[in-house]
Design goal:
With 222 residues, this protein is an alpha/beta fold. The protein is built from 7 helices and 8 strands.
Length: 222
């Protein structure tokens, strides 16, 4: 597996506890994590306005679509967004064979598409669109830790393994199984010493490096 050293522009995240507008199935007994370090993130620690406004089932008319989908174009390739009408359930690169069925009436897809565009434009550092994650207890624990890593910071696989009581290799597998990349930032988990290892989306490690460089202010062209 190819590896590359990071230039040291990204700070190491501090593990503390946080609450996110995230639906997890099944529920875990771990205490929620809070975001560390960034005063903006601390200020916005309550559920986002978008989540509060859209959480009623009656707010999500989605005629003709059992699972709303939207195709968007980003600097790291075309993405397919999937929604269950209340939360984002999947983000996939189109080249991976993800089907697309645009459902223009879904406000959750509107919110996610808008926030992803703002993220790549450099004007958004924290996603507030709700997500719904399903997986094993280990997977949900790893994904929850990833969501707590602030913009512009990283944790190692070892850091995450200690936080969830597992092993780095198992954490790497759970990162690779993350169904909502970019929004659930698996790219912020790196190897020991800041090495870039294992990213299954887009162009692999090149895409991971692009996202980390974007967050560190060292944007590059793919």
């Amino acid at each position: 597996m190819a590896t590359a050293a990071r230039p040291g522009a990204l700070a190491r995240a501090t593990m503390v506890s946080s609450s996110e507008p995230t639906n997890l199935s099944p529920r875990t007994t771990r205490q929620p994590l809070q975001r560390a370090g960034d005063p903006v993130l601390r200020k916005n620690s309550t559920p986002a306005t978008v989540f509060q406004r859209l959480k009623s089932p009656r707010s999500f008319p989605n005629p003709g679509c059992d699972m709303g989908q939207r195709k968007i174009t980003t600097p790291v390739g075309a993405l397919s967004l999937s929604s269950n009408g209340r939360a984002i359930t999947r983000v996939a690169w189109i080249r991976d064979g993800a089907p697309t069925q645009d459902c223009p009436s879904d406000p959750i897809l509107d919110a996610a598409a808008r926030e992803i565009a703002q993220y790549f434009a450099g004007s958004l550092t924290r996603f507030t669109t709700p997500v719904h994650l399903e997986g094993s207890t280990l997977q949900l624990g790893v994904w929850k830790v990833m969501r707590a890593i602030p913009f512009g910071q990283v944790l190692t696989y070892g850091d995450v393994a200690r936080a969830v009581g597992s092993e780095p290799q198992a954490v790497g597998t759970a990162c690779g199984q993350n169904p909502i990349p970019v929004i659930v930032p698996c790219h912020r988990v790196v190897g020991a010493g800041g090495k870039l290892t294992g990213f299954s989306g887009g162009n692999g490690i090149e895409t991971k490096a692009f996202l980390l460089d974007l967050e560190s202010g060292q944007g590059r062209l793919l």
